[in-house]
């Protein structure tokens, strides 16, 4: 099963799927704000651990969490590498022009802690809340129907894109592609060309559907009633923790 289908399935079958989206949006939003405004890297680390614990509490399998976080966390690790490494002058170290900067190491650790905490919170929201609930909440907050239709079309496009990519890749391997260096380059070229053509046609079809539909209205799914006390408690705790962190 491909990652978008896996995320969508977990979002609809986890233990928190029937919880009101306002509660999960509040928890995710407060966690993101705490991770971004923290004065030290320890609070983002605590937010990240709490996010992983919440996913475990929601019943999301660990393999799904690893697959969902693998690509963004790898991108973050590659992004902080320039903060750690620095170039030295040739007289200082002619045999090793690249070395680790202590101040860059601290900056990279703080940046990685914040970014990983935010990533875990947003991925956790996607793994526990169906897209229908998110769009319905956005419409309740004033999102125009045209933007709702665009979000749903992009969501549908991602599913079709991954399915088309898997089909084309399987067809290339069935024709004995990806054998040797030359065969791999040729197969990748054919795969990219066919994928671009079919994706363009799919995008054009979705655009025509959006123009003909003129917007959509998402109705609420059968979820539990939202609890204002729980939402207010999460917001108050986040505010108190943020004020305490800023006053240190």
* Tally of domains: 2
Oligomeric state of this protein: single chain
Shape: globular
Report the β-strand fraction as a percent range: under 5%
Please provide the count of β strands: 2
Q: Termini separation (Å)?
A: 47 Å
Number of helices: 9
Strand arrangement in the largest pleated sheet = 1-2
Report the C-alpha radius of gyration, rounded: 23 Å
Major sheet size, sense and barrel closure: 2 strands, antiparallel
Q: By helix and strand content, what is the structural category?
A: mainly alpha
What's the pLDDT, averaged over the residues? 79
Residue ranges: pLDDT <50 for 5 or more in a row? none
The arrangement of helices and strands along the chain is: HHHHEEHHHHH
Helicity, as a percent range: over 70%
């Amino acid at each position: 099963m491909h990652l978008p289908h896996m995320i969508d399935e977990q979002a609809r079958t986890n233990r928190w799927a029937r919880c009101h989206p306002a509660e999960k949006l509040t928890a995710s939003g407060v966690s993101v704000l705490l991770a971004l405004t923290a004065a030290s890297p320890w609070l983002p680390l605590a937010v990240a651990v709490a996010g992983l614990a919440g996913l475990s509490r929601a019943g999301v399998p660990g393999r799904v969490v690893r697959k969902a976080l693998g690509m963004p966390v790898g991108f973050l690790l590659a992004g902080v590498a320039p903060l750690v490494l620095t170039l030295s002058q040739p007289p200082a170290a002619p045999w090793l022009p690249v070395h680790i900067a202590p101040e860059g190491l601290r900056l990279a650790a703080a940046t990685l802690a914040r970014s990983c905490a935010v990533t875990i919170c947003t991925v956790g929201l996607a793994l526990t809340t169906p897209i229908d609930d998110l769009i319905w909440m956005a419409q309740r907050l004033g999102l125009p129907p045209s933007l709702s239709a665009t979000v749903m079309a992009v969501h549908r496009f991602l599913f079709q894109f991954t399915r088309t990519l898997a089909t084309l890749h399987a067809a290339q391997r069935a024709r004995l592609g990806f054998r040797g260096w030359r065969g791999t380059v040729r197969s990748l070229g054919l795969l990219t060309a066919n994928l671009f053509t079919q994706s363009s046609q799919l995008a054009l079809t979705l655009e025509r559907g959006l123009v003909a539909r003129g917007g959509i209205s998402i109705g609420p799914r059968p979820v539990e009633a939202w609890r204002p006390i729980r939402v207010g408690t999460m917001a108050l705790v986040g505010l108190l923790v943020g004020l305490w962190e800023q006053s240190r």
